[in-house]
Known about the structure:
By secondary structure, this protein is mostly helical. It has two domains: 1-50, Orthogonal Bundle (Arc Repressor Mutant, subunit A), CATH 1.10.10.60; 57-191, Tetracycline Repressor, domain 2. It contains nine helices and no strands. The chain has helices spanning 9-25, 32-39, 43-49, 53-77, 82-91, 101-113, 118-142, 148-172, 175-191. It is elongated, with a radius of gyration of 19 Å.
Amino acid sequence: MDERLNRSETQEQILDAVGSVILREGIGGASMRTVAKEADVSVGLLSYHFDDKQTLILAVFRRATDRLFDACASAAEEKQDPAEKFRAFLRGAFTDEFLNGSYLALRIALWALALTEDGVAALDAEFYERYSSRFRELVGAARPELAETVVADRVQDLIAGSNGLWLNWARWRDNDALQRGLNHCEDLTLNGEIRARAQR
């Protein structure tokens, strides 16, 4: 059962608070007491909904990855053409909801914590497999002539490239560079090459 459907308003309020604390004080500062204060709930109520700090951290990261995947999937569903579905799924991760300092900082914290925390690493790996699997389906539908191994390699390169675009945008907020990068990612994934584009 999808746990997102069962989150209460209080749980969402708590997860918002966890995210705020992580952004302000880092993972180390996200104690149960600090989160309870940020969420304006008692420690007892917080403990009723979330067993411990690790459960809180995993829940806020899961919510962040679920939101990203759902936005990408919803964008793709609006398209009919297979290549356009692929492009919409890719660009669903680059909307205002995700191109902001708070979300990007949370994702970077997730990647960093995955290096040392098994539970976070498992969550990150689960998301990566779900995300890359959907990309492989979309690219395979758009380019059925490609071998599965070629599709898998291109998707792996695509995700690495798009993560780089996220980080570059987080540093410089250069929307022109972001659009060029997305165009390049699309061309490399679908066509195996970067096509020259007319200067605007």
